[in-house]
UniProtKB/TrEMBL annotation, chain A:
It holds the Pfam family ABC_tran. One of its GO terms (molecular function) is ATP binding. It comes from the Bacteria. Belongs to the ABC transporter superfamily. SMART domains: AAA. Keywords: Amino-acid transport, ATP-binding, Nucleotide-binding, Transport. This is ABC transporter ATP-binding protein. PROSITE patterns: ABC_TRANSPORTER_1, ABC_TRANSPORTER_2.
UniProtKB/TrEMBL annotation, chain B:
CDD domains: TM_PBP1_LivH_like. It is found in: Cell membrane. Belongs to the binding-protein-dependent transport system permease family. LivHM subfamily. This is Branched-chain amino acid ABC transporter permease. Keywords: Amino-acid transport, Cell inner membrane, Cell membrane, Membrane, Transmembrane, Transmembrane helix, Transport. Its main location: membrane. The chain crosses the membrane at residues 12-35, 42-61, 67-90, 102-120, 149-167, 195-215, 221-239, 246-266, 278-295. It comes from the Bacteria. It holds the Pfam family BPD_transp_2. It is a multi-pass membrane protein. InterPro entries: ABC_transp_permease (IPR001851), BCAA_transport_permease (IPR052157).
């Protein structure tokens, strides 16, 4: 079986500074794969390159069998990759419902869009209660829900979530993580970038530890969760 | 002729022109944060495009029937020039320091003026623009020239169409998204390059409509007409809150009315006799801008730029 996403020796630089220094990994359909690591490890850079916002210096990205060389970001969305960016980046001056509709920008099936908006409201009832409210008025956690709901609106084959728990209260973080496992149970393929290694590894099939632009350790979520070096470096154990 | 209704009518006619041109400044700024200082010249070439169509029509062709064709001609010329400028002058500089596209815009503005001056037949002096015959209409106590009805009808029609486009169509919503957060707009599948071209094109089309109104109002078009009109329209866009399309039209009308009332009445105020009359109207327009920016830096309908979380 070929992987949905295959990354081979990917290198990305900002000017002369190389932020991602040759990483390889893959995501199989139906899997949850997580990239963990500290700030500056290159996780966000990796996701932004996969979705076409950044251009790689070298390496290959294959999505759904197609190489993504020189494919602009908006066409990558059309291929079935959705990216919920770090810092949520909802459209603050639009209503919640309009934000969700923008997630379905490339779709033409009106009935299907309405159904999926309803699905987002079922997943996150608070969004449904405030559908006509400007998205900028939502709390951080609610904005995160909206960003995830919006990413799902394109009916992606691969959902990429960048730091969904960043800046959230512990309760909200739990809620977001519970939603991710719910999505996983529904069969959604997810590439999850997280600083909260404990939460991410507990629900991931595969995990990769990134340090200053490289993958230093890979394994199943459970393996990494019980790996001594991971526990020391990322789970705060002595 | 210093009655209030007449001054208000004059202000409204002028303001509608400013507003239509201001849309181009505000849309482009809202999406790429560029002040397109060549927009005044986009307006100017639209006037020449419309004139060219009129001159190409057989003698005896009625002006009323010619107007739609002239609009089409002006719009085509303006849109072509504006989108070519975007593609070949501004797009390569999109990631350059802010000053580079700004200077490019000023250079483009001069180049367009000189190109028309040099190559358009007899454009070294103002060229006369066709006029409607017949006496003015009397509306609510004001005399309105037949030709001025054009801009008074065209401006609201354009605004309603634009409002519909931006809020109800898919590309319109894509435009709003691109203005708010371009990278995230790409992640929604929005082709932001195309949205930017659309913003330039709509602004250019509105400027061409304004240029037809300007020609009918003034009876002439000239290669320099974009300079002061562009500056005023830019002022209107800032006054209304740059980035806000309704603000641009509001700013235009407020500016037009202020100019017209200043010309009509400031000279009547004791000890202000010196500052009345048409020669001072540009001064009052910019005084108004300064006052509004002191009191409300974001403009009349502008929003304070909120930090993104």
């Amino acid at each position: 079986m070929t992987a949905l996403l295959e990354v081979e020796d990917l290198r990305v630089a900002y000017g002369k500074i190389e932020a991602v220094k040759g990483i390889s990994f893959s995501v199989e359909a139906g899997q949850v794969v997580t990239l963990i690591g500290t700030n500056g490890a290159g996780k966000t850079t990796t996701l932004r390159t996969l979705s076409g916002l950044l251009e790689p210096l070298a390496g290959q990205i294959k999505f759904d069998g197609k190489p993504l060389k020189n494919v602009p970001a908006h066409k990558i969305v059309a291929l079935g990759m959705a990216h919920s960016p770090e810092g949520r980046h909802i459209f603050p001056r639009m209503t919640i419902e309009d934000n969700l509709r923008l997630g379905a920008y490339l779709r033409d099936d009106k009935a299907g869009i309405e159904k999926d908006i309803q699905r987002a409201y079922d997943l996150f009832p608070i969004l449904g209660e405030r559908r006509k409210q400007a998205a900028g008025t939502l709390s951080g956690g609610e904005q995160q829900m909206l960003a995830m709901g919006r990413a799902l609106m394109s009916q992606p084959k691969l959902l990429m979530l960048d730091e969904p728990s960043m800046g959230l209260s512990p309760i909200m973080m739990q809620k977001i993580m519970a939603t991710i496992s719910e999505l996983k149970a529904q069969g959604t393929t997810i590439l999850l970038v997280e600083q909260n290694a404990q939460a991410a590894l507990s629900l991931a099939d595969q995990g990769h530890v990134m340090e200053i632009g490289k993958i230093v350790l890979s394994g199943t979520g459970q393996d990494l969760l019980h790996d001594e070096s991971v526990r020391k470096a990322y789970l705060g154990e002595d | 002729m210093h009655e209030l209704p007449q001054q208000l009518a004059n202000g409204l006619i002028l303001g509608a022109m400013y507003g239509l041109i201001a849309i181009g400044y505000t849309m482009v700024y809202g999406i790429v944060q560029l002040i397109n200082f060549a927009h005044g010249e986009i307006f100017m070439v639209g006037g020449f495009g419309a004139l060219t169509v009129f001159l190409a029509l057989p003698a005896g062709f009625s002006l009323l029937a010619a107007i739609p064709l002239m609009i089409i001609g002006g719009v085509i010329v303006s849109v072509l020039v504006a989108t070519a400028a975007e593609r070949f002058a501004y797009r390569p500089l999109r990631n350059a320091p802010r000053l580079a596209p700004l200077i490019t815009a000023i250079g483009l503005s001069l180049a367009l003026q000189q190109a028309v001056w040099k190559w358009y037949p007899d454009a070294k002096k103002d060229r006369s623009f066709p006029q409607f015959d017949g006496s003015p209409f009397h509306i609510l106590g004001a005399n309105i020239q037949r030709g001025d009805l054009f801009i008074l009808i065209a401006a609201p029609v354009c605004m309603i169409a634009l409002g519909f486009y931006v809020t109800k169509t898919r590309t319109g919503r894509g435009m709003q998204a691109t203005a708010q957060d371009p990278d995230t707009a790409k992640l929604m599948g929005i082709n932001t390059d195309r949205i930017i071209v659309m913003a330039f094109a709509i602004g250019a089309a509105f400027a061409a409509v304004a240029a037809v109104g300007y020609g009918l109002h003034n009876g002439q078009v000239g290669f320099r007409m974009g300079f002061i009109m562009g500056l005023k329209a830019f002022t209107a866009a800032v006054l209304g809150g740059i980035g806000n399309i309704y603000g641009a039209m509001l700013g235009g009308i407020v500016l037009g009315l202020a100019e017209s009332l200043a010309v009509g009445y400031i000279g009547n105020i004791p000890s202000m006799e010196l500052f009345g009359g048409g020669a001072w109207k540009d001064v009052w327009a910019f005084v108004l801008l300064i006052v509004v920016l002191l009191v409300r830096p974001q403009g009349l309908l502008g929003e304070r730029v909120a930090d993104r979380a």
